[in-house]
Specification:
457 residues; alpha/beta; DNA Binding (I), subunit A; eight-stranded mixed beta sheet; 20 strands; binds zinc ion
Length: 457
Amino acid sequence: MITNSVFVLSKNGKILKPTTPVRARLLQSQDQAKKLKLFPFTLILEKSVDENVEPYLELKIDPGSKITGFSLVDLNKNEVIWAMELEHRGLAIKMELIKRAGVRRSRRTRRLRYRKKRFDRKKPDGWLAPSLRHRLLTTETWIQRLLKVAPIKSIVIESVKFDFQKMETADLEGIEYQQGTLWGYTLREALLEHWGRECVYCGKTNVPLQIEHINARSLGGSDRFSNLTLSCEKCNQKKGNKPVEQFLKNQPEILKKIKLHQKKSLSNAAAVNSTRKAIFEMAHQFELPVISGDGASTKMIRIKSGLPKQHWIDSACVATDQIVKLRICQPLRVTCKGHGTRQAQRVNGSGFPAIASVKKNSVTGKKEVKLVSKNQKYTHATAGDYVVCNLLKDRKHVKSGIYRARVKTPTEKGVEVLISGHRIAVDRQHIKLIHRADGYEYSFATIDHDLLRFNAI
Ligand SMILES: [Zn+2]
């Protein structure tokens, strides 16, 4: 299988097992099922079937700042059967808000009635900046959408980079000799990050670093994260099991730095990315088990599975200790586009209300004023909708044929659609609505056959 599994609902709307694209096409051609939704592709059966399906899928999420990876993993086979990458628009939101702030600032200095200043208001607890909140909300939307069509048993979210809590409590006996284990790897990554990828004693970089106990184990030092650091082999041997104070007796600055860092490592346990934490907490509302994963283990499992770095693949590798297998190699790409603007009155380049557009008549050369109406009459399709359109004749840049396209503007006669970057006007009788505008743009990543070939070994 290459493309995502197809979700199937029963005649009565109950969630059934997702099926393969091939079977989905067969069901449709034999009139046994109809398309219910295009994105994510969902069928509804026409005949009655056994509706008892035990949830067997795990929804796995890897929240990222620009792209969040989603995948559905078949728990019986540990295989990815459906995946998606959600591209956020945090930066676009930020820029819009800066624009709005500019408009408001100018309004405040105009000669108007007194307005109370509104800027240093106290932010409520758990407040997130709009660009971050959008990440939380769009992730919530997609969890909701998937729960409606897939038999999901549990939700897994990568909520921290390093799980310090686990690291402080896990049995780390002799861990420095087991770099191949999940914990050995996680611990090493966390230490590298925390101590800046250099030998703490001599500051050498780009040398193999060993895990080093600040208070030697023979002197009662623990295996906890807060007692560990990294040093080069030379320094490690030189220090041996001397107390750190004695070893660094002539280098008080380094000793001070180590002590300071040691203290910081404990507070680090609480330092998690606020958006990820919020996403993890939000997921609890769905009354399913919510499992947390850490980024270091995700990376470890992905490398062990021999898979490249992609957001959807990462999501499948969250919080598991088994090799991840792929049954697909082409995730759905969803881009957050927003719902346009709520600005009631558009302005022209000089900031004046744009009520009319002036056009030169190409024949007479006279200027003609065309009113821009607020509520343009539109057909059943509106801006942003996905339609199938039938072009009967060749157009300037586009050949005749049947196209799937997005509506750019509704017109008096029908719509203008975008086909390979060109605006094409199509009459209303030649378009068919297939997916209503919902603030997202959909596409598919390019097929990467190597992914499956490699994984099949
Ligand atoms: Zn050293």
